[in-house]
Amino acid sequence: MTDTIVPTVHWHRIEDGRVQCDLCPRACKLREGQRGLCFVRERRDGAIVLTTYGRSSGFCVDPIEKKPLNHFLPGSPVLSFGTAGCNLACRFCQNWDISKSKETDTLADAAAPAVIADAALALGCRSVAFTYNDPVIFMEYAVDVADACRERGIRAVAVTAGYICDAPRAEMFAHLDAANVDLKSFSEETYHHVSGAHLQPVLDTLEYLHHETDVWFEITNLLIPGLNDSAAEVDAMTRWVVEHLGRDVPMHFTAFHPDYKMLDVSPTPPDTLARAREIALTNGVRHAYTGNVHDRAGGATYCSGCGEVAIERDWYELGAYDLDADGACLRCGTQMPGVFDGPPGTWGPRRRPVRLADFGRPGVAVGP
User: Fold this and answer.
1) pTM of the model
2) Which of 22, 113, 219, 337 could join 144 in a cystine, given CB atoms 3.0 to 4.6 angstroms apart?
3) Does residue 368 belong to any structural domain of this protein?
4) Residues 134 and 33 in one domain
5) 129 exposure class (CB count in 10 Å sphere: 0-12, 13-18, 19+)
């Protein structure tokens, strides 16, 4: 399979003859034939192109709670996919086989935007998620898929580190319905030395989403022992969230497992997650969750009005559900922040790989 090439617009020429990519704050400066750190954007014929449009590392139907999004169409299935490459260099990457890949063989499944949207509809998915690697680096493909989905009543979700410049940020999120933003740390030093990035652009993305868009978003913080799990850092982070984004933005504190270049770091103890959640709640975050662990208390959604459990949740599986079709508490009537549209879905914790290259062929099963 050969690369599919599409032109991009977020770049400019600089005085020494190179061209600078203006998609993300990394600002890669490229000579002819060179690729940026993300590996998928390359200088060809004096311009920067996206080399992997229409190609994916794989498709899978997941629970929306796996993104994680707990306040967006709860219980519904989402058609998830990613490409290859990434514009960050996280030593703790949990999807490194995809995000760090420079092998075109990783892009084993091809699908045009309309095919993805039709597949999502046929599979009973209420949304499509750009995940596994960051959609920022394949923005043109993600935008076209989002538009095709919107034409069919399917929502579009980005799972992103939020590391993007102002103009492409506005362009990308104008086409999206929801996002989970990975706030990897609240330390510039950690971002710089462990992810090869900077904190402020991510904070800018969060503030942009809150103040300038109607995109529903939630925040994930992967807690890594000895790196970003101190009570002081969690305290500072959650205070910033409440002050700058409000009390209703859900926060997910998730468990690290040893992977990629951090195999010598221990998994996150459940007590660390519980402590982070308690700090967030104390600082005014109304909806704080623990993730990647079985924790019914930390996974449940509580009504901010009456304090009772509104959605029981064990990992990705829903239990009792005490909200009406519009997301109001059945006990006290308090509106739950988020996107609620009808009864909860029943997808549960299932994970179903899908081969879109075979989609629609005779004998290939479809449907939820």
Assistant:
1) 0.94
2) 113
3) no
4) no
5) buried
Distance in angstroms (rounded) separating the CA atoms of residues 188 and 183: 11
* Distance in angstroms (rounded) separating the CA atoms of residues 182 and 205: 11
- Residues 59-99: pLDDT tens digits? 999 999 999 999 999 999 999 999 888 999 887 776 655 55
Please state, in angstroms and as integers, the Cα–Cα distance from residue 40 to each residue in 50, 144, 186, 209, following that order: 6, 17, 28, 26
Distance CA(68)–CA(63), nearest Å, equals: 9
What is the domain-level CATH number for residue 211? 3.20.20.70
CA pair distance 348, 318, nearest whole angstrom: 7
Last residue of one domain, picked from the residues 35, 50, 65? 50
Compute the Cα dihedral for 69, 73, 74, 75 and give only its sign: negative
User: Does 362 map to a domain?
Assistant: no
- 8 Å CB contact between 127 and 67: no
Residue from 108, 143, 66 nearest 318 by CA: 66
- As beta bridge partners, residue 128 has 79, 156
Residues 188 and 59 in one domain: yes
Q: What is the sign of the dihedral through the CA atoms of 118, 123, 127 and 132?
A: negative
- Which residue, chain included where needed, has tokens 């996974």? 299
- Smallest CA-to-CA distance from 84 within 65, 109, 62, 64 is with 109
- Which pairing describes strands 77-82 and 178-182: parallel, antiparallel, or unpaired? unpaired
DSSP secondary structure of 73-128:
STT-EEEEEE-S--SS--TT-TTHHHHT---GGG--EE--HHHHHHHHHHTT-SEE
Q: What is the pLDDT of residue 1?
A: 39
281 Cβ partners below 8 Å, 6+ apart?
Answer: 288
What is the biggest distance separating any 2 CA atoms in the chain, rounded to whole angstroms? 66
Domain shared by 83 and 200, yes or no: yes
Same domain? 39 vs 88: no
- Structural domain that includes position 144: 55-354
